Amino acid sequence: MRPIAFSKSGKFWRGNLHTHSNCSDGLLSPDGLCQRYKDEGYNFLVISDHFVGLYNYPVTEPSDFYDPEFITILGAELHSGSTENGEIWHILAVGLPKDFLPTNSPNFVPTDNQETGPEIAKRCVEAGAFVTIAHPQWSGLTLADARSIKAAHAVEVYNHGCAVSTDRPDGFHTLDLLLAEGRKLNLVATDDAHFSDPDYFGGWVMVKSNGNSPDAILKSLKEGAFYSSQGPDLVDIEIETSSVEVHSTPVSTVIIQGQGSAYVVQHGQSLVSTQLSLERLKKSPWLRVTIIDHNGKRAWSNPIWRHQFQAESEA
What tens digit of pLDDT does each residue of 7-37 get? Predict the structure, then answer.
């Protein structure tokens, strides 16, 4: 069995799902952001400005930038309702319609008579967006908070802006707890770039698609046909009943994680094809792959559910 990111036809397209322009609290114009990301070798960008009244509820797109090899996808970071610590929700929505009805969110403080976080996430999904629970560690989300968002496709497990500015980049604990409860969620790495700090080009998604268009990329995101990276590339993952073979660019560590403390690891020099036994993960209903290169940069697969590859091996 090969996860959809590797079995699906097409090629990988590199993109950032979380970016802020000067239409909210970012430093660069939308056109300037596009040029910077294009020059860095990205194929697509989501300008996810803060969807609050303070900035006139923007769903931002560039005005004059055009390049057939580089696209933008409409999106926003939405804020509505209060988390358990009394702060406002951060919900990342990719593929949000331009005419999405604003929330009652005048600023970054929870307000009476506004939608809750779960309600705004649900409305985004119903509008066709790919929805992510943003930076749970930075936000101080509790497990109860995370559980409440029923309408989500993914958890933001690495946020580069939160890494360089607050040393709170992580979302894996939140993701793994939800996976343990049977939630079928994927994971994304992003920049959350504002360009007022060195918060750019640090985390991205590699999306498998037959074409680089907003509709094609959005479809692949919803299918889970992608992986996330800070540098190294996952080339292929092949899963058998009792083992996994991971193909990658040269790395020094390959880890298979499962539920609870279950894991298996291989260390070495310039590992490019690594086979690992699943004996220690045989009771885990899911697994995911992490690779780490000699610079400490990582790439992560989406969670892979055991029932998927068991069904395929029995077919």
Answer: 999 999 999 999 999 999 999 999 999 999 9
Question: What mean pLDDT is reported for the chain?
Answer: 96
* 108-151 pLDDT per residue, tens: 999 999 999 999 999 999 999 999 999 999 999 999 999 999 99
**CA-CA distance, 289 to 200, in Å (whole number)?**
24
- CA dist 89 and 95 (Å) reads 19
Identify the CA nearest to 22 among candidates 73, 68, 60, 79. 60
Helix (H) or strand (E) holding 314: helix 306-314
Q: Are 133 and 154 in contact (CB under 8 A)?
A: yes
- Paired tokens of 86: 């009394």
pTM, two decimals, is: 0.96
How many CA atoms are closer than 13 Å to the CA of 47, on its beta-carbon side? 27
Strands 204-209 and 263-277: unpaired
Instruction: Give the start-to-end residue ranges of the domains of the chain.
Output: 4-229, 234-314
CATH number of the domain at 4-229, out of 3.20.70.20, 3.20.20.140, 3.20.20.450, 3.40.50.2000? 3.20.20.140
CA atoms within 13 A of residue 262's CA, in its CB half-sphere:
18
**pLDDT value, residue 306:** 87
Give Cα 62 distance to the centre of its chain.
Answer: 22
| CATH number of the 234-314 domain | 2.60.40
